[in-house]
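From: lab user (bench 3)
To: helpdesk
Subject: output format question, protein + thymidine-5'-diphosphate

Hello, I'm new to running complex predictions and I'm not sure whether the block I got back is the full result or only part of it. Here's what I submitted:
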Amino acid sequence: MNGLFISFEGIDGAGKSSHIDGLAKAFTEQGRAVTLTREPGGTPLAEKLRTMVLNDAMDPLTEALLIFAARRDHLVNVIEPALARGDVVLCDRFTDASFAYQGGGRGFNLGVLSTLEQWVQSSPALQADSSQIILRQPHLTLWFDLAPEIAAARLVDARTPDKFESQPLAFFQKVVAGYATRVAADPRRFARIDAAAERHQVWQQITRVLVQKGWLSIMVAARP
Ligand code: TYD
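Helpdesk reply: Thanks, we reran it on our side. This is the complete output you should expect:
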């Protein structure tokens, strides 16, 4: 079976987490091996970098470099081996988040982000057959689209906010715009999920996409 790489994106408070867990269960019930992972993070080294990125003040280039260093470690040690085994890789955020948060939110140079993306996601050591170097991207990205005002209201009573979650509304408006630009540049890779809908309707939207692609059976998807 071919490996499948699915990423999940959206602003903080968009409600990705429970649906990612639900999908992991659905794919497992269908007999697929699932690798459930996240960014920044997913390896011991990348989780250390995550702690720094989410808690320590740093200049935007340092932040981008640490995030892409974590991504490289994660790709080499977790994502690529899982895809080679034929797993379904469910990844809570990937490079689109860098374009949205660092590029959109922080206003960091998009050209530098593109260069880092090329280096990290297509350099030879990633692929066994170096004659066929591809730019590793998710096969599908589910974009949980939600107005920042609604997300902020949902996060009010949530745990102590990290460096990004404590940003003002204007930051998240720029993050949403960053995501929208990224979707416009490669619309076929994305499925937009209306994350303002009721939770069970969000689940229906997600499973509809996966059933249409032939990746999830209707029977498994229909279960609560
Ligand atoms: P998140 O995925 O929301 O995890 P949790 O649910 O545990 O809070 O948090 C990760 C944060 O990191 C989120 O605010 C977005 C940010 N981030 C970036 O700024 N750039 C990136 O490239 C990635 C992957 C995440």
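A quick orientation on your result: The first strand starts at residue 4 and ends at 10. Let us know if anything else is unclear.
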